[in-house]
């Protein structure tokens, strides 16, 4: 089984990314052929500074390795190093419906937040994301809950491509694989601690409500202590009535790898204040070893580059094979 996922080198990685995506990446390394990518091309769709992008790229690479990605057990690379992603994006654009792109929530949210240019690439972003996954013929895509709509779109793109061009597979060229999203049962959508009806996010969330993977323990504790709850006193998982408390339960359940019910039972008689401290402590305990490992890995940019370059070489072999098939089926270039 082939697994693929990508993560942006924008902003700084937060607890939502860590629980919803990164922990899944690490776990899935041993369940199939896992391919993970830092998507620098996606990061160019909103305003950014080139020099900062490179810094964040290394930050993100070091966080992923510190969290347990192992270049011996997965293919780990930078999107921009494999030009097949952009070529496939163009080819798949012909089977991407304009109307579908126009319905994407993420485009609406991110376009609404721009003061100057709303780039065309922000609009076509989901086709690049489809190309990322389809280039590897991946069956499973571990992501957070916010990516459901993009996953549906990439499935539609693969199905439309296959129906249009690969119905009677021509020669040696193979059709695309229709992938499935893999979402954690607990922790697929971590909310902002200050605005618990919005997802935790570096681009759209509040600063105090976003816990960063690299935050100091004291900062983490402060953010949890100030987390918004409600005027009640019951520690109960009810997203509609008690979104703040439900989010804290979700975080603790994910970090402890247990159920909501187990957390509720443990804190049946606790006060909100004590519960928040317990959640903070669990998160700090989970993140401290990652931060320590990060501090060792981050300074050696040459070593990070070497890992990414070796990964790109492996990735490229797979992606080039898919692109050759897609070109052949679409009648682009000479008949091989
Ligand atoms: P941006 O707001 O710039 O899109 P992001 O925080 O969503 O940034 P990404 O790199 O786009 O970060 O997402 C990486 C992975 O983390 C994706 O699989 C995404 O679904 C997941 N993810 C993002 N936010 C959350 C969240 N709050 N809870 C759980 N998973 C999340
Ligand atoms: Mg995102």
From TrEMBL:
Pfam families assigned to the protein according to its UniProt record, in alphabetical order: tRNA-synt_1b
EC number(s) recorded for this UniProt protein: 6.1.1.2
Family, per entry: Belongs to the class-I aminoacyl-tRNA synthetase family.
Predominant localisation class: cytoplasm
GO biological process: tryptophanyl-tRNA aminoacylation
Stated name of the protein: Tryptophan--tRNA ligase
Its biological purpose: Catalyzes the attachment of tryptophan to tRNA(Trp).
Annotated Gene Ontology cellular component terms: cytosol
Subunit note: Homodimer.
Residues that coordinate or bind L-tryptophan: 132
Signal peptide: none
Organism lineage string: Bacteria, Bacillati, Actinomycetota, Thermoleophilia, Solirubrobacterales
GO MF: ATP binding; tryptophan-tRNA ligase activity
Keywords: Aminoacyl-tRNA synthetase, ATP-binding, Cytoplasm, Ligase, Nucleotide-binding, Protein biosynthesis
Localization in the cell: Cytoplasm
Reaction(s) this enzyme catalyzes, per UniProt: tRNA(Trp) + L-tryptophan + ATP = L-tryptophyl-tRNA(Trp) + AMP + diphosphate + H(+)
Keyword Ligase: yes
Binding site for ATP: 8-10, 16-17, 144-146, 190
First-tier enzyme category under EC: ligase
